[in-house]
């Protein structure tokens, strides 16, 4: 077994996975082996509180999991919209147990109890302990543990049933007695216990067990035993051993329908169907009912438009009855769903209005029958009725003609039509009926206030009053079902035979699961599949082709994207455009204009259907190829525009198509198309890196570097150069080293590269190497490239390196040069990075006001781009600089707001709490200063933190200095931990920060010479001192070391290389 979750989470024979969070992600992905689990689902299931940046948090966790899986035959792959565990179902113990239960159940049913007992026994042997107890507080764990507990119980039931049927019953009474004690209200287990007692010659005990069970049911539920248990009781009383041995396998699921109202029933002969009042309230539609009533006051024809299952018929019926109650005017119902011929429409309308067909008595008085239209006009003359014409879509052209006759026959008559497509009749007012309102993903409060969740609760309680319904799980189920009332009712009915957690786990097969609507419902509403297929069969061939092909675009599409992906074979771009309009009219596409352009989106229910139809049509390969070709085309056009002029517009375009581009990238990787994968990945990696999504780059980099097909050399070189520095967020990895080697071979080999590719590649190699000669070579190649962006980028690189060397003046000069270059190109990312660099330089020089101004500029540029982690980090730094500049109130307000916006982000907590500690120090609030640093240190040590080590060092070293400022010197452990992190990261100013803190400790302990040496060394590499310049009577001052000693140390190390400075710091602080 490759992955085991039926006990402690393991990989392989004995592969323990470190970290509860990593184990939780592995277990959650293992529950859907080989299938993509969406990012939102992972966030909801794995994190107890929603992380501030969900996508980054999942990327980071996936990266840690990949490292943990290194060396095992299992890996985690990024995919469109989520991640998947690349493993077969047969390699996950829980999936094997599910399959063995199905096999065992089938064997019992087929009369082969020996095979059933063997299969169930093998499944039960897979349990190694209680499942999912080692995954921390992941929200999915209790739910899945309960489901797996139910699975284990079902396996025991099935194995016991097989043993009963094959005569292996000697040990069953004791086992079943214990199970009944654990599950006292489980009638199936009690029935098996009674049968086992009879089989072992103890019928009197069987009857006593029945009486005990009957009393328990009466006391706990106020109910009598069910029919199956009563049958067992009767068989015991009559000594019918044959009936007892051949009793049915205890069912784990029972088809049942929701307690929906019966469909309108036919009235007496000669009259049409009448409206029936529902036994259940219409939930979540009060505002829309009032709105449509107002529309009917002003318009003669209102059409309720919406997809199948959205509740159009129920809504129209409720509205008609309300209008009848309010006005007393007649209301007629015309049902068209059962009709298949245009010729039947007018007779159905006449019947609905109470107009009889021509009979013998009519012919006796008038031997010439009057035309149907004439009878229709006569019936409606002077009428002020409301006519509900239900389910018009499949005969829409004829219905439109008849409805036109109706509204022109009387000035007072009104028509309320329900349809999946407009009637296109003069005067028609269309009212799209949306799905029921859903709680937003990640919302923790008040899911029961949303109609979709309320509907599920009401129907589930009707199905099984004692069912446990977790509001968060119910909300997730309703979101997966798109808020469609029919789908929710079908799902809620399943609670009769399974828990809501089991239901949620099986929603990947929603069409197979959601069957068995109420017997009174029309056949097209008995299953979710029937609802969608009803609409599908109304489409022409072109519309069907476009709909199934759109399913490969998870992010929806505008008209141009749809044409690029869907126009192949006999379908051209013009046909796609026409089909989009038709599909939107048929309510099979959701039209979204929120982004300023019109996009078409599939509901997930329709997408799943379209995906199956794509396979059935044999078009999967062609549609996937079209998706990849579109992604390559967009990526190639976007890539040069991600630097300089046009950057903001193209970032917006990539944001809009992000999920589709990721789907194209995944498809190219899966097909082994290296050239296409690299082309798309280059654009996406530039984009992700600029937004601070470094784990995204690193995660995809691991997959890209494993590809070995031909690719464009320049594309490959730049891609590798982007991946290398971003891969460092996960620490040194084999992937990072392999990428470096490939980059070096391309740049130093004889491949023909573009000037930018060669210059950028050399720059990254030089930055990773750090040798002066190589740095000069990279700078010269960048200058010679003729590319102004490349020159500005080189200046930024060298500015950051100078800062790391402690050469603050050179860093400032180069950053200013880079900033001027990026400004000339209108490159907002470059402006953000250079403004942030200069801001931190000013902060190190003690000019807080200048630092805040520059960081303000960085925040504005990052905001324009929609940056994630980098933008958030610079906002935190700006707030801290405000505190240091004396604007304490505003700084505290900004820090507090950021913590409220990102309540579960340990990186935000680390920096923000450190900033609040500095604010408390400025105010002389010693208790708060220490408390804030304690919280900062706890956040810095969190398993979930994935940001740069500098944040953790700042918290640890700051907490140490804070203790020194209140006269404590118990800081050795804090400083040792901070130093270890700083050295591992290699950021020299951060090492210097720790050195200065050690110097302050030496000063406090009376070792002035050591203090002067450490402070001078720290300042030599450009360190920023924490809390050192805060003066307040409540704080102990940290005096400067003796100036003569300090000056002597400055002179001694003035020309010492930075690497030597760091080495000397190490010799002083290591124990």
TrEMBL record:
Q: Quote the PROSITE patterns the UniProt record gives.
A: OMPR_PHOB (PS51755)
Entry keyword DNA-binding: yes
Record-linked CDD domains? BTAD
Task: Output the InterPro entries linked to this UniProt entry.
Answer: AAA_22, BTAD, HTH_77, OmpR/PhoB-type_DNA-bd, P-loop_NTPase, Sig_transdc_resp-reg_C-effctor, TPR-like_helical_dom_sf, WH-like_DNA-bd_sf
- Output the Pfam families linked to this UniProt entry: AAA_22, BTAD, HTH_77, Trans_reg_C
Membrane-spanning ranges: none
Q: Where is this region: Disordered?
A: 254-279
Identification of the protein by name:
Helix-turn-helix domain-containing protein
């Amino acid at each position: 077994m490759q992955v085991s979750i039926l006990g402690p989470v393991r990989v392989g024979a004995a592969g323990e996975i470190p970290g509860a969070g990593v184990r939780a992600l592995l277990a959650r992905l293992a529950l859907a082996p080989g299938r993509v689990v969406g990012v939102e689902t992972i966030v909801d299931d794995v994190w107890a509180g929603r992380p501030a940046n969900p996508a980054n948090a999942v990327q980071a966790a996936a990266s840690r999991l990949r490292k943990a899986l290194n060396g095992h035959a299992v890996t985690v792959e990024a995919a469109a919209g989520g991640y998947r565990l690349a493993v077969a179902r047969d390699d996950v113990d829980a999936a094997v147990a599910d399959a063995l239960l199905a096999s065992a159940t089938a064997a019992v049913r087929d009369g082969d109890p020996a095979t059933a007992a063997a299969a169930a026994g093998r499944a039960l042997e897979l349990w190694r302990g209680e499942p999912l107890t080692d995954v921390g507080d992941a929200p999915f764990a209790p739910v899945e543990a309960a489901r797996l507990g139910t699975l284990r119980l079902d396996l025991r039931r099935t194995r016991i049933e097989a043993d009963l049927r094959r005569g292996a019953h000697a040990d069953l009474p004791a086992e079943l007695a214990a199970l009944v004690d654990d599950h006292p209200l489980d009638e199936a287990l009690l029935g098996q216990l009674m049968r086992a007692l009879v089989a072992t010659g103890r019928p009197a005990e069987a009857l006593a067990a029945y009486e005990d069970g009957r009393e328990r049911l009466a006391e706990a539920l106020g109910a009598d035993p069910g029919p199956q248990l009563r049958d067992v009781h009767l068989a015991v009383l009559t000594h019918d051993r044959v009936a007892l041995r051949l009793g049915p396998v205890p069912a784990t699921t029972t088809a049942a329908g929701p307690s929906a109202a019966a469909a309108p029933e036919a009235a007496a002969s000669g009259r049409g169907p009448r409206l029936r009042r529902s036994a259940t309230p219409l939930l979540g539609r009060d505002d829309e009912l009032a709105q449509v009533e107002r529309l009917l006051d002003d318009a003669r024809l209102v059409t309720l438009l919406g997809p199948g299952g959205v509740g159009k018929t129920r809504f129209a019926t409720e509205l008609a009855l309300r209008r009848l109650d309010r006005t007393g005017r007649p209301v007629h119902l015309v049902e068209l769903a059962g009709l298949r011929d245009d010729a039947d429409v007018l007779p159905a309308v006449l019947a609905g209005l109470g107009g009889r067909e021509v009979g013998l008595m009519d012919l006796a008085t008038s031997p010439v029958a009057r035309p149907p239209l004439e009878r229709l006009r006569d019936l409606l003359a002077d009428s002020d009725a409301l006519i509900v014409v239900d389910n018009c879509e499949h005969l829409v052209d004829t219905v439109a003609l008849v409805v036109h006759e109706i509204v022109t026959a009387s000035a007072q008559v009104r028509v309320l039509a329900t349809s999946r497509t407009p009637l296109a009749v003069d005067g028609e007012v269309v009212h799209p009926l949306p799905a029921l309102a859903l709680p937003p993903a990640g919302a923790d409060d008040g899911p029961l206030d949303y109609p979709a969740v309320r509907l599920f609760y009401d129907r589930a309680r009707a199905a099984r009053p004692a069912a446990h319904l977790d509001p968060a799980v119910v909300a997730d189920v309703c979101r997966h079902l798109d808020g469609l009332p029919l789908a929710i009712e079908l799902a809620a009915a399943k609670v009769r035979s399974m828990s809501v957690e089991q239901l949620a786990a099986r929603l990947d097969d929603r069409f197979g699961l959601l069957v068995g609507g109420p017997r009174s419902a029309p056949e097209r509403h008995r299953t979710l599949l029937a609802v969608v297929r009803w609409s599908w069969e109304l489409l022409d061939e072109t519309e069907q082709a476009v709909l199934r092909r759109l399913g490969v675009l998870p992010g929806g599409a505008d008209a141009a994207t749809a044409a690029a992906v869907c126009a192949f074979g006999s379908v051209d771009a013009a046909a796609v455009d026409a089909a989009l309009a038709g599909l939107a009219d048929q309510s099979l596409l959701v039209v979204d204009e929120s982004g300023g352009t019109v996009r078409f989106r599939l509901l997930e229910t329709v997408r799943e259907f379209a995906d199956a139809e794509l396979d059935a049509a044999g078009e999967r390969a062609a549609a996937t190829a079209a998706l990849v070709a579109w992604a390559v085309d967009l990526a190639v056009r976007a890539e040069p525009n991600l630097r300089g002029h046009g950057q903001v517009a193209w970032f917006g375009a990539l944001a809009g198509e992000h999920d589709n581009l990721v789907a194209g990238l995944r498809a190219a990787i899966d097909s082994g198309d290296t050239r296409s994968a690299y082309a798309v990945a280059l654009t996406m990696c530039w984009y992700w890196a600029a937004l601070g999504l470094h784990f995204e780059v690193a995660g995809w980099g691991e997959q890209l570097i494993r590809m070995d097909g031909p690719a464009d050399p320049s594309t490959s070189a730049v891609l590798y150069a982007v991946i290398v520095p971003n891969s460092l967020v996960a620490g040194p990895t084999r992937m990072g080293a392999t990428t470096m080697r490939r980059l070096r071979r391309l740049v130093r080999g004889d491949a023909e590269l573009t000037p930018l590719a060669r210059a950028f590649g050399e720059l990254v190699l030089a930055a990773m190497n750090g040798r002066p000669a190589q740095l000069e070579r990279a700078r010269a190649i960048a200058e010679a490239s003729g590319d102004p962006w490349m020159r500005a980028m080189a200046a930024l690189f060298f500015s950051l390196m100078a800062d790391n060397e402690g050469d603050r003046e050179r860093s400032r000069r180069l950053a200013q040069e880079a900033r001027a270059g990026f400004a000339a190109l209108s490159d907002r990312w470059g402006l953000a990075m250079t403004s942030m660099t200069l801001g931190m330089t000013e902060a190190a020089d003690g000019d807080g006001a200048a630092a805040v101004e520059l960081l303000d500029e960085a925040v504005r540029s990052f905001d324009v781009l929609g940056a994630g982690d980098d933008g958030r980090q610079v906002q935190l730094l700006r707030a801290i600089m405000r505190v240091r500049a004396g604007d304490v109130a505003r700084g505290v307000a900004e820090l507090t707001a950021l913590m409220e916006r990102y309540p579960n982000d340990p990186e935000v907590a680390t920096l923000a709490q450190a900033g609040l500690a500095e604010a408390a120090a400025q105010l002389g609030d010693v208790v708060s200063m220490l408390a804030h640093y304690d919280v900062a240190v706890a956040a810095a040590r969190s398993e979930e933190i994935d940001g740069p080590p500098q944040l953790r060092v700042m918290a640890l070293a700051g907490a140490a200095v804070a203790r020194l400022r209140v006269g404590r010197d118990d800081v050795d452990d804090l400083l040792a931990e901070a130093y270890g992190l700083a050295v591992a990261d290699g950021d020299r100013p951060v090492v210097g920060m720790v050195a200065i803190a050690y110097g302050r400790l030496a000063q406090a302990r009376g070792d002035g010479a050591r203090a002067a040496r450490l402070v001078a060394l720290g300042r030599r590499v450009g360190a920023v001192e924490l809390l050192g310049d805060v003066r307040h009577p409540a704080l102990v001052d940290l005096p400067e070391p003796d100036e003569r000693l300090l000056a002597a140390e400055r002179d001694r190390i003035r020309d010492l290389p930075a690497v030597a400075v760091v080495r000397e710091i190490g010799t002083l602080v290591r124990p």
